[in-house]
Amino acid sequence: MENSTKIEIRDLNVFAGKTQILRNVNIDIPKNKITVILGPSGCGKTTLLKCLNRLTDLYPELKVTGQIVIDDHNILAAREDIYKLRQQMGLLSQRPYPLPMTIYNNISYALKLRGIKNRREIHKLVMHYLQQANLWDEIRTRLREPASRLSIGQQQRLCLARGLAVNPEIILADEPTSALDPISSQFIEETFVRLKNDYTIVLVTHVLRQAKRIADNVVFMYLGDVIEQGSVQEVFENPKMEKTKLYLGGTFN
Amino acid sequence: MTRTQKIEEKFFKLLMIVATFFIFAVLAIIIYSIFEKGLKSISWEMLTQIPHGGYYYGKGGGILNAILGSLSLAFGATVLAFIIGLPVALYLNVFLIRHKKVIDVIRFLLDLVWGIPSIVYGAFGFSLMIFFGLQTSLLAGILTVTLFILPIMIRSMDEILRTVPIGLQEAAYSLGSNKSEIAFKIFTRQSISGIITAVLLSFGRGIGDAAAVLFTAGYTDHLPNGLLEPVATLPLSIFFQLSSPVAEVQNRAYASALVLTLIILIVSLFSRGIGKRYHKTKINF
Fold this sequence. Notes:
The structure holds two protein chains of two kinds. Chain A is α/β, with parallel strands linked by helices. Chain A has ten helices and ten strands. Chain B is mainly alpha-helical. Chain B has two domains: about 5-40; about 55-280, MetI-like (MetI-like fold), CATH 1.10.3720. Chain B is about 75% helix and about 0% strand. Chain B is built from twelve helices and no strands. Chain B is globular, with a radius of gyration of 23 Å.
């Protein structure tokens, strides 16, 4: 189990009209590890993440070819149940998007989508996931307030709790700390490290130090190509490719 | 800033101030003239009684028939248009998301029918009535006004629903919501105050229009009495009173206009209140 692959990406190409956003991407994402996808803005990191839970379906201009295999299923196949698929993954986006309802309902909504109907169980689980995201103590008296009243850092933790509440196996995070203050960012990072025993985490970032701090594996991308991938030691201490060296050296970003 | 830039800035600022002032002045004059002439004639009797014989020549009575007629007609049409319009607006924004061209065509067509004068809807409603063998009635009026306000309802809701950020949609989809859940739980909640505004706008257009109801709702001095009976409406009541040769009756027309204006004012204040209450859960971006 230790080194098994959770997600295999094979020959993934994404086109937006005539421009190619991703070119022949091949990545193995190991189970119960933090895989960081690193690269400058516009390199296709976010698009890659959106392919994984098929949010690309929302963008009619995107054409996706290739294979993404999760647990022996090619999730890009047309007949895949995308609603089930998306529940296997929790998503944390660049800035928090709480749902337009109360704090409590943000979590209970996700639980109900999972099929949990018993009110007492929902109650228990709302508390559980808010505790997991380290938010419970701050907001335990405010559960019936609209989620929009929380601070940005709290909203992002609420989104994390909501993402966990669908009981996923994979956590997708798209620069989740870029809008946050240092303390909230640090908390999110710590949570990821704590969660990796139970989840496979794919984190997109352009912050080198963040990658260094928490990554097990690193994938470096540049303009739609995967330039280099490997363990964090390999990539950071002994990069093979010229572009990786330049990027890590801060020559371009 | 160079000197010419400064002059330019001053000139355009002045232009905007004058234009703003102008439009407010026109509004103020309209409202003033309605109040000035209307307040003189408005009375408890006018609000609570139906026209007595000879009302249009200066004898006693009131316009309760038209007030209740207009309210029931506009209310019926707004409810009907909402029941049809909300699903259309949601369908455009949630289900057709991958078909931008289809959406564009539908929006264009809706804008086109929005621009059709209400008298054309009236004529269309009238020909339908003849086809089905219906008489002028509350029902025919409601159906015609529904058709007339539907494009307004749909497009105003559509414009609000369009502003739901894609990030919020992605967040909801990523939890495994299906499209109808996204439509009814996310889009409507996020846009609730805008949806209420759209309903209000349609109600205002419906209650204030004379041409659509001219052939279809008919006119009567009696109170509304069932869906298949003719009803009086405020715009037509204003028209009949204003065309009277008697100055006193003409003043009553202004009083009726005042009633119509106040109804719209009350409805809009009420809707604002509801909108504010629900606004709290909206996520601001």
